[in-house]
């Protein structure tokens, strides 16, 4: 599998809605497409319109598999970019859920 960055813009009104979608996404990936897509992590971002978006890291056979996964889940995949390399300067910081309250 190859690694991809996926940008999903303004898909959710709040963290509750995002959580529901995340559950569906995990189920679709793990049960319906386990040999095609693997969700690694997501960074949730505040969009300028007040909604939430994400920057997601996935592994997949190809961009078409990511688009199919997004279609089945009912979310966008606005940009899909293959990752050329990974440079880790520091580990990811501990999540701060209260930032979205």
TrEMBL record:
<dbReference type="InterPro" id="IPR025336">
    <property type="entry name" value="SCO4226-like"/>
</dbReference>
<dbReference type="Pfam" id="PF14026">
    <property type="entry name" value="SCO4226-like"/>
</dbReference>
<protein>
    <submittedName>
        <fullName>Uncharacterized protein DUF4242</fullName>
    </submittedName>
</protein>
